[in-house]
Amino acid sequence: MSNRKEAVYGMLAATSIGAIWGGPQPFLGSRAASIVVKRLEPKFLIAVDRFLDNGEEHSIMDNLSFIAENAPTLEKIIIVPTKEETLSCDISNIPNSCFLGSFLESGKTQNGETPDIVFEQLPFDHPVSVVFTSGTTGMPKGAVHSAGALLGPLMHFTLHANLKSGDVFHNIFAHGCTLWNFHVACLSLGIKLLLQNGTVYCMQDGSNFWDVLSEHKVAYTFLLASMVDKLEKMNAYPDPSNRNFEHLKVISMGGSPVKTANFQYIQKIVDANTLITILYGSTETRGHFTGIEYNLPIYAPEIQVPSLGIKCQCVNSKG
């Protein structure tokens, strides 16, 4: 699944019935994706028809037959069409497949009504998700997270970032990434999700990342340090005629070492009351090690404060 509302709906639906949610990132090829899917031993696979990466379109449907052949536990493949022409495609070569519309119709009562959701009451340590590492140091490892892991992001958004109901959280990361899992829980706080799919650089209408934050009155966003580097090299700045960052509370950076130049570039763009900070976390924790403190100074490019509730220690090669 790409970074879209159907992925959020699917995750919440799975959690509500006590199912376990997980999967590969959409840009993986058929072989790499099938390894992740097979390890999950899933009954259901939900997939979009295509994935946009930096303006380039990749077909996911081309991978589904191979994935199905290598995942014997699969009972149903549900395809989410993002283009009208997808509905006219022949999917007979994809075993046990259907489009999302017909799958949802099958859940209605005989009277054509949608039954109410029954939320399973399960213990704190009941597993809700499996998040896979990137595979940079070998085969991707699947970390299993319990329902308790959903509380970590809530602590970050409320106690560290001071986000309130109605604030807009901007996310640019596709499903399968820890950063995607990180944001979904904030819906329970009344925080709005702005899901951006495709590219944060130059879009078809000539706008860029900063214009999106301005137009949609974003309060919180996270960028990889490498993305900040590229935006600066592109000389990306917001449209001065529509510039509005009064709602922007926090911009976090991470993923790799953040440089002083990254802070300086963002400082040229946002208002003085926007906190620019560093966020580091991991797949294994399904969350963050570092925190945000509005009442303390920030020294670029240092981590400002450790996260609440996380025991952090720095060790050398000898432990």
Enumerate the strands of the largest sheet in spatial order, edge to edge or round the barrel: 10-9-11-12-13
SSE order, one letter for each helix or strand: HEHEEEHEEHEEHEHEHEHEHEEEEE
Q: Would you tell me the overall average pLDDT?
A: 91
Number of strands: 17
Helix content range of the residues, please? 10-25%
* Distance separating the two termini: 39 Å
Radius of gyration: 21 Å
- Strand count, sense and closure of the main sheet? 5 strands, parallel
- Helical/strand content category: alpha/beta
The proportion of residues in beta strands is: 15-25%
Domain AMP-dependent synthetase/ligase: 1-311
Organism: Trichonephila clavata (Joro spider)
Protein name: Acetoacetyl-CoA synthetase
Pfam family, one: AMP-binding
